[in-house]
Design goal:
Elements: H1 2-26, H2 38-60, H3 66-87, E1 89-91, E2 94-99, E3 104-105, H4 107-125, H5 131-150, H6 155-172, H7 176-197, H8 200-211, H9 215-229, H10 242-245, H11 257-285, H12 295-316, H13 334-352
Antiparallel strand pairs: 1-2, 2-3
Helix pairs in contact: 1-2, 1-11, 2-13, 3-4, 4-5, 4-6, 4-12, 4-13, 5-6, 6-12, 9-11, 11-12, 12-13
């Protein structure tokens, strides 16, 4: 019971800190008629809904439905990802969301989840005599999913989906030769990626990262670095950060929320947040209840959540290009938060499916 409470509690603690971060990142004492912003209200609703989703799936999903749910979910969000550029809502030059009124659905966030689930199932059921065929299937799904997301365009999500299926293929064949071959293929494909897949704004972000000379593209990172660098050990205090308070940090409640958190709570607050992530992911990797058939799911889940965490943190401190990856359970965004709870629900169910409930 203690283990189960811990794995329910850790994402809930991170989510609670995320609500605090969203509150301070979007609070405006000069213009707000109410105590909290609409962003905070929505994130609170998403948080409660997400936790209920986690509890329901992890304790109530009938075992006979699992594979059907995984396959159906993957197909559904693959189709929605394909339709998004046609029926979706354009925001800042990208069409990644489908408006549902109160909620803007981002199908690619859920596609990441079902990519993890279906790739894990394929690895778990793979036969050693057909490893090449299994890798071909994984590559085909990665190519199809990634290209659909690139069309929105969303290079960060597309790259992560490619990474999920690549990680699954590596689990099937964990060898140095496999790594070398894939690195050679990747570097050979870089000219094609640069000239045919990347948009101008994505190239500008890379220019800004490597050359540090484009004010328009580097502004976000520069302001985030100022916020983090000026925080000190204890920070400037709750609701007292200047970079976030005066809206100098773009996307301060989504991609760059870590810089707002650090500015107000300092090095100590950043260390607490990073330590919680480290402990959560380490605990997942050391689960004793995991059967050999479930290890691919744990590995791919850690790859997905860990990659998003590391990329977002590195992006905030200027050692990774800006790619628009949310910080799990912290950044504002209903699709990202709900999809992460959904993924954990399936993971916990696979681990404790024999238990009647939490």
């Amino acid at each position: 019971m203690g283990s189960k409470l811990k794995f329910l509690g850790l994402p809930l603690i991170l989510n609670t800190l995320g609500l605090l971060a969203v509150f301070t990142a979007t609070f405006d004492e000069f213009t707000q008629e109410k105590f909290f912003s609409i962003f905070f209200l929505k994130q609170a609703i998403f948080s409660v809904s997400g936790f209920l989703l986690l509890w329901f799936i992890s304790s109530k999903l009938p075992i006979v439905f699992y594979r059907g749910v995984v396959i159906s979910g993957f197909i559904l969000f693959l189709v929605l990802s394909a339709l998004t550029p046609i029926i979706g809502e354009e925001v800042k030059g990208a069409v990644r969301w489908i408006s549902l009124g109160f909620f803007r659905l981002q199908p690619s966030e859920f596609l990441k989840v079902f990519s993890v689930l279906i790739a894990a199932e394929m690895v778990s059921s793979a036969k050693l005599d057909f490893l090449l065929w299994e890798r071909i299937k994984l590559f085909s799904l990665a190519l199809l999913s990634g290209l659909l997301i690139l069309a929105q365009p969303d290079a960060g999500t597309a790259t992560l989906i490619f990474g999920i299926f690549w990680c699954a293929a590596f689990i099937l064949n964990p060898s140095f030769t496999f790594l070398v071959k894939n690195l050679l293929i990747f570097f050979s494909a870089l000219p094609l990626i640069w000239f045919f897949l990347l948009h101008d704004y994505q190239k500008n972000r890379l220019y800004a990262f490597f050359l540090k000379g484009s004010p328009a593209s580097f502004w976000q990172v520069e302001q985030a670095e100022i916020a983090i660098g000026s925080a000190g050990f204890l920070g400037k205090g709750f609701l007292k950060g200047t970079q976030g308070r005066f809206e100098l940090i773009p996307e301060r409640h989504t991609d760059f929320i870590f810089s707002v958190w650090t500015e107000e709570f300092g090095l100590l607050g950043a260390a607490v947040l990073i330590s919680l992530y480290a402990y959560f992911y380490y605990s997942l990797s050391k689960l004793e209840e995991v059967s050999p058939g479930d290890k691919p799911l744990i590995t791919l889940t850690l790859f997905k959540l860990g990659s998003e965490t590391v990329v977002n943190l590195f992006m905030n401190v200027g050692i990774f290009p800006v790619v628009g990856v949310a910080l799990p359970f912290i950044s504002y965004g209903g699709s990202n938060l709900l999809s992460n709870y959904l993924l954990l629900g399936f993971v916990y169910w696979k681990i404790w499916s024999k238990a009647k409930s939490f």
